[in-house]
Protein: Peptidase M15C domain-containing protein
Organism: Herbaspirillum aquaticum
Amino acid sequence: MTTLSARFPALACPSLLHALAAPATVLALALPMVARADITPVSPAQCARMQSGKVITSANPVPCSRLATVSFDYTDFDGATRQGSVVVLDALAPQVEALFGELLLRSFPLAGAQGLEAYDGDDQRSMAANNSSAFNGRPMTGGGGWSKHAYGAAIDINPLQNPYVSKAGSPEQEVLPPQGAAYLQRAPLQPGMAEDVVSVFYEHGFLVWGGQWKQPIDYQHFEIGSRSFIQKLASLPKAQARAEFERYVTRYRQCAHPSAPSTASAATPADDDAPEDTRLRDQCAARLRK
């Protein structure tokens, strides 16, 4: 298990040794929150639960042996710290761990995050519960092949605040979940809306945001590049696939932050106070995801 205090030293407690000598009640008040994150392979027992929960079958393009569970702390809409998890392709897991760590540091709220087996693989039930999730061995909405969720290469966040909209603007318009219709007006931004963290997903390799699609519009949905790239990662051994994905992330960051010094953090621009160049961000994402 790793902690965000290890990844981000500012979260560490400078008086930890002194606090450890204090009574338990004082210790609980003195110690800051230590955010926890963890990556574990999907075990045979977990795989069996996913199978019985209608989340994966033997026909899925990626087997359980290539999936990993990323567990993390997150902030809920009341400001409390909760624990959640998503299942993703193993090659993506370190970046997904860092991604959710960044959401926590930004206090970006999530309503919940648990596997689709809790909803019998029913995407609409998961959306109705405002559940953030990743892996689901299902076809694309509307048919036409496997969803990128079936590869563990897509993440949905806060479906209520970020609804799926089909046939937008027409008499046949459908909003999922239906309560998400209250959030079709995207400005001003409200807590939990995806627009606030598009750059975070891009910085960790999820270069496609469904909120930019024309039809349908899928505000909750982020995925990595082309289907052929995802299939390549799934076909490579885990270590090789992970290295390939890390190169992909690095190429995006070098493109999006060309002036950042090599000694600066790869995940952030050189000037944290500078406004984000969204045009350059989207140009770099479009170039790499082909």
